[in-house]
# Entry
Amino acid sequence: MIYKLIKVLDKRFGIEKAKAHCDIPCGIYDPITGQIAALTVVRMIDLMNDLENKHPAGGLEAQNSMSRYVASKEEHAEKAKHEIRVIWGDYIKPQHMEKHPELQDLVHKIMQLGSKSRQTADRETAIQFVEAINQFAEIFWETKGIAVKRAKAPYAPALEMIYPDL
Amino acid sequence: MFKFVKISNNSLLPKYQEGDYVLIVKIPLFLNSVRRGDVVVFRHPLYGMMIKKVSRVAGDGKEIYVVGTHENSVDSRQFGAVRKDALIGKVIWHIGKPFR
# Structure
């Protein structure tokens, strides 16, 4: 009631603003970095499977490549989780939660799938990780009033991704 | 003596959100007695009018150090102390958005 009254006064007379300033340009958020990182996890698992099929006996070079794929899988799974945490913590507001009460469970699911993608080489889990972040992206763009489209990523593993339809 | 101010940006999350209003008191007696934990509005030469929480009052009482409660806050950790004569007011009433 009081808030609404002051807001009316603000619109009528204009209340001066005081900045609670942050050092990042707040407002620049995009889940695509998290989506691409999750997609990279699937790509690393595919490369790991290819390598194992080509070099079932292992060998130094194969071990070296496998180590690099695993390290990259680890890095990108964590990066995807980080990107979602930033949007969750810095962008998502109570009004978004009111409109999308499923967000809480969805973000928790993304964290769990990200961890499982690090712990295992299970492609199905990694695909679920990509899809959960896609769902997050759909909600994110909805909060901005921007329509989205589903399209295959233009690079391997060419999974479907959510993109803003600009 | 009193003034309403609207908050922009989010360095005082989670308590103060963008779009909230605060009522500040501009009486010098109140400004001279600011202490740690008070939320104050002041004028910064680069950033303009800012709102932050007082983290420390300098020994001579002429300067204060301010912080935000968000990890990305720009405050005295970057721009140093704020002179007391740059203070505009001290927050005495916080009017948050009603959906909380």
Observations:
- Chain B has two helices and seven strands.
- The mean pLDDT of chain B is 87.
- Residues 2-95 of chain B form a domain with the Umud Fragment, subunit A fold (CATH 2.10.109.10).
